[in-house]
Amino acid sequence: MSTHESAEMSGHGGEVERAEPTGPPVPETVAEPIADPGLEDHVDRLADIDPKAERRADRQVAGMFALAALLIVGFLVAFFVFQIEVDGNVAEAVRNSNLALGLTLGLALFLIGTGAIHWAKKLMSSHEVDHERHELRSTDDVREAALADYELGVEESGFGRRKMIRNSLIGAMVLLPLPAVVLFRDLGPLPGDKKAHTIWDTDVRVVRDGSFEPVRPADLEIGSLVNAMPETFEDLPESGPARINERAKSPVILVRMEPDEINAAEGRENWHVDGILAYSKICTHVGCPINLYEQNTHHMLCPCHQSTFDLADNGRVVFGPAPRSLPQLPLAVDDDGYLVAQSDFTESVGPSYWGRRR
What we know:
alpha+beta, 5-stranded antiparallel sheet
């Protein structure tokens, strides 16, 4: 090792000592801001300099709007022409209807959008502008200037003087809401008072849901619960809207408690049979089927949104979003000793809505 190298070695493990740099500090480089490039030179479009091109673009835009109006009329015609009959080939009818409705309405919307874009690109003012950012709330002078710019934009768009485009666009937009109106027809006929009635009626027997065996009072013990249906449900067609609708409206739950625990409302004193009560199985909130019964408190809980009903107190709501009590079915016993209904429900069953909350 040379004398120079030994001088650079320390006495701590033989590590080499590094010399500190000397000289003036190197100044940091400051980035220059990017210069404002400004607006590019305006380039006139063909429609700006050629009257023939302008008129051609005018006709193209108006033609798109007019064709959109015709397609909307075609949508209305197709809606009524392609009827879906339950007795016919439903799959083919639905396919043809969807194809016709989709093509006409889809093309109409496409042409309205394409016409608007073509109008903006070919005929509206194309001069580039820049605008500085300001405070969120502009001054009164700026707001007045904005209104003036809006009026200028209306003038430059040619909406007022290009009557063919304006009238064709107005015609298409006036017809555009009609498809939405006629589509409400697919919701079916108005229900009238059908929701207020079920197939329960005087002397209709109560049968177990599933087995359809009639129920005797002796079949229910204190604290028990039975899911039931009207016996007339078996008389409905095996498939179709009638059976589906009644399956959604007619189910009831039978519970039994001590008769002295029942706080019957006025007029309902004889609606139970030896403590056996019948209530609609359909929650009055959004129509979920309920089946969670707490026999000690006589509370029935809806599993969907936790609405809770007191079955000992006329189905009264004690908790949750349900706006009204569970409808109660008045019960009696026929000559053969089976449970029967005294009548239909005295109030409509199912979910509540405006005008049907109490």
